Amino acid sequence: MSEPATGTPDRTRPDRSAYRAWRTATTRWSDDDVYGHLNNARYFDLIDTAVNAHLHEATGTDIRTLPAIGVVAEVSCRYFAEMGYPRPIELGLAVERLGTSSVIYRVGLFQGDPEGEGALASAEGRFVHVYVDNTDPARPPTPIPEVIRTAVAPLVV
């Protein structure tokens, strides 16, 4: 997303076409906070799960055991509309940037009818993985493993 000339962040709500892979998450009674909407901590759990579940499924391997692993360097969320129990949440996944040792993901969270209120994201997360050497206790940055690169390349927008 770009920033307008005023220097304020672009608050444009992405639509479903901005994402390449999809999964559905269920909501639970305990996901809602005292205000009756999805607690902000749950958004981050969903964002993390969308990325790592995709990597696990697309690679067919336990990504935690690779010689290079992705560690979270940054995560953020922009909120556009309330979500909550008991409706499912659809998670759209895209890659904004695929670098040498890092990947920047965008995860759209959608709730509701895709032709109606759920056509636009209720929230969008930004999730940055930096790959580090899993065999070195100092964990220096290292190139993204080819199995991961192959799994995320189709998600680049």
UniProtKB/TrEMBL annotation:
The keyword NAD belongs to this UniProt entry's keyword annotation: no
Q: Which residues form the signal peptide?
A: none
Q: What are the alphabetically sorted keywords of the record? A: Hydrolase
Which domain of life does this protein belong to?
Answer: Bacteria
Q: Does the keyword Hydrolase apply?
A: yes
Q: Name one Pfam family in it.
A: 4HBT_2
Q: Tell me which InterPro entries the record gives.
A: 4-hydroxybenzoyl-CoA_TE
Q: Which PANTHER family does this chain map to?
A: 4-HYDROXYBENZOYL-COA THIOESTERASE FAMILY MEMBER, NOVEL THIOESTERASE SUPERFAMILY DOMAIN AND SAPOSIN A-TYPE DOMAIN CONTAINING PROTEIN (0610012H03RIK)
User: Which family does the entry's similarity section mention?
Assistant: Belongs to the 4-hydroxybenzoyl-CoA thioesterase family.
Annotated protein name in UniProt: Thioesterase family protein
Naturally occurring in which organism (per UniProt): Nocardioides daeguensis
